[in-house]
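Researcher: Quick one. two chains, 542 residues in total.
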Amino acid sequence: MFRVLGRQHPTIRRLRVLRRDPARRRAESVLVAEGIHLAQEALATSRASVELVVLSPELGRTEEGRRLIAALRQSEVRCFETSDSVIQSLQDARSAQPILAVVRRPRWPPDSGLETAQPGALLAVAHGIQDPGNLGSLVRTLHAAGGTACFVDPGCADPFHPRAVRAGMGSMLRLPVLSEPTADLLPRLRERGIALLGADAAGEQEYQDCDLARSVAIFFGGEGRGLPPELLAELDETVRVPLQSGVDSLSVGAAAAVLLFEAARQRSATR
Amino acid sequence: MFRVLGRQHPTIRRLRVLRRDPARRRAESVLVAEGIHLAQEALATSRASVELVVLSPELGRTEEGRRLIAALRQSEVRCFETSDSVIQSLQDARSAQPILAVVRRPRWPPDSGLETAQPGALLAVAHGIQDPGNLGSLVRTLHAAGGTACFVDPGCADPFHPRAVRAGMGSMLRLPVLSEPTADLLPRLRERGIALLGADAAGEQEYQDCDLARSVAIFFGGEGRGLPPELLAELDETVRVPLQSGVDSLSVGAAAAVLLFEAARQRSATR
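Model:
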């Protein structure tokens, strides 16, 4: 069996700190993946490496969990056990999982995702998105639509927050997710000829009329307020999704799905 | 000023029960709207009526809150005050709001949203969606895309759960959101000639190739598992959103946004 750790064991304490402290997650360059599905993804992804796993007896109570335990025994990953209540105390109460994995974040070469040869870059830039779950969903949708990288301004939630990682469903491990102040990013994108588009409820073009098959970065603003006018003024174009009258905005997740899959559609049509 | 209610006042106790008990919300035919934006929406929507409002001193600390208090004073709505800590105890800790409104749910005539004259019905059917926030987002996206009604199978979360209402951003008050077992709904839709489409990652048609300008009901399954095979077998067609290789599914919110806005696009093109 695996070594059993108590509530005050240094590894459990470290997990407690990693859960609440984005600076510590960043300094250690790790993320905490919660649950069977994410743990499997982390084990299967060559770009990320699993540093250690903590599981609870609950994991052995399902067939899927027992298969994962067997796979972990065959692997070289350091595994520890703790009680169900300790593992729950390390997570959101609403849907605690029987396994946590500390995963080293993938390292990406400089300028990953900024390629402009056809099919060129399809970037999402998050600016002011406060909810980690919304950020995770954006990364998942971008990945599914064939996006090449996600940039996250420091004014957003931490894209490696446990809830973001969970909503991202493993996409954090496969797609470059890069923290960079929007002000620094703009000249880098301009230099490469990547079109800068703002998603805005009052945008000048309808999304279907916008060329999304070229290399583009689509900027998404925060819940409620959207992109700040100073930033919109710096972008090349603004795009909107036309809404039923009486509705004043879409959620950032829905707007991103519509725009990014329109980009995917245009790209597959021109291939 | 408004009458101040203590933690054990019957109205506060009732709010506590309404928060946790879907059966009580249903029996009373009410929903609890949290926050300034939703309270404003409820006051402005003629279909819904605000039964009472409870607010805390926190509300008077913002300009927007003070404007709402002034509007409430002019209105006939029964208003009560309670402490910040009591109002917080009636909500999710993560983002407690300084105002709660008990709102009578809108009543809809029978067969609301099932019209088949052009532009015909655009329905979403939720089957097995467990997260109230996902259900609320689906209703919001459907409303924004010009949908006509949302049906919710009893195996889903309660669409009038406070988190669903919050994610729905007022759309629950403006669009028919109807609880009905999928098994009863199918013959009613068939009788009217409404096409029954299942959103499925392995669907037979790509979504752009599917005629969504006719009267359609799009069925969306739960997080993770999607629609059950028995139900898929009963539908007329299945549609998929093509995904980047290596990604096996979209979130229900993203899939709904892509499909419903494709319907909106086809409908505006044929008008």
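The radius of gyration of chain B is 20 Å.
Researcher: Thanks, that's what I needed.
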